Amino acid sequence: MHEIDFVIPWVDGADPAWQEEFRKYRIEAGMDGSAIRYRDWGTLRYWFRAVERFAPWVRKVHLITWGHLPAWLETAHPKLHIVRHTDYIPKEWLPTFNSNVLELNLWRIDDLAEHFVLLNDDTFLTRPVVPEDFFREGLPCDMARLSVVRPSSVAPTILNNLELINALHSRKALNRHWRKWFAPCYGVGNLLKTLSLLPWSFFPAFYDSHQMLPYRKADFRRAWKLWSDRLKETSSHRFRSTSDLSHWLIRYDVLCRGEFVPRSMADARMLTLTDESVATIARQIATGAQRLLCLHDSAEIADFDAVCRTLQQGFDQLLPQKSSYEK
């Protein structure tokens, strides 16, 4: 079995030094200085507790940071690799506050395993997982499903990815790998959604699970050869731009080439945190109702501190013991 690493980008939006630099470059760019997307839920310690308890087989955890670190973190942990932006992002693209830049350049991280899983700090394990949940026979495990682009703030980036994919791959790619596109493990609902979009002569969109994504460095290197100029352009954007590409581009290319093993996403859910929903979500966390959870932030939360406390209470019930990643 191949060695597998976890990679997690993290930012402490409450760090005064980070805030000062953030505001400085936002003002220079003539943009709104809101940092709501970067606020910290205080749940990173539970992320590490979950990794230690539910995925002890992970070779190394690469924590990507602007420079700040939580005071409780055991930085000398043998499995922990602290990766600052300056450690792997070319200096001409720094400083950056664009998650697309951080993720598209992951393959540059020193000592990153060829097989790795990208997790955001809002994605959590709540039950045990095994390496075969992410890779089998050296290939990433994923679900190939056609979809449509919904109007949203990330829609332009998705369309930019699709433009390049449709220029490179024809729909014959789906025909060549139809067994993987119509794997029974996806479930009837997902299969019907793909079937309903078959009349289109191009890829209208791909289903994005917003979960823990398995990747190979080789696929990133391939993308940087194919689309070097466009990826460099995105990497030059200090903040997110409507002309950005994202790491989903690499995933779409893998799906079109059939370089994946089908897997069900029935054990994964994305839940939106609100003042009203957080109590229910906390109960689901406490009971481990799903193996993989993505907790989606909401700009409409009225009492952020109260939501944080309730969320942390759920994690405390599931993961009450400190991990070896904590001092």
Summarize the structure.
With 327 residues, the chain is α/β, with parallel strands linked by helices. It is 36% helix and 14% strand.
Descriptive account of the structure:
With 327 residues, the protein is an alpha/beta fold. It has one domain (4-318): Spore Coat Polysaccharide Biosynthesis Protein SpsA, Chain A (Alpha-Beta Complex). 36% of the residues lie in helices and 14% in strands. The protein has 13 helices and eleven strands. The strands form three sheets. It has a five-stranded mixed sheet with strand order 3-2-1-4-8. α5 runs parallel beside α11 (248-257) and α12 packs parallel to α13. The mean pLDDT is 94.
Which class of secondary structure composition applies to the elements? alpha/beta
Classified by CATH, the class is: Alpha Beta
**How large, in whole angstroms, is the Cα Rg?**
20 Å
Poorly predicted ranges: none
- Give the beta-strand count: 11
CATH topology: Spore Coat Polysaccharide Biosynthesis Protein SpsA, Chain A
Determine the mean pLDDT: 94
CATH architecture: Alpha-Beta Complex
Question: What number of domains?
Answer: 1
Percentage of β-strand residues: 5-15%
- Sheet with the most strands, sense and barrel status: 5 strands, mixed
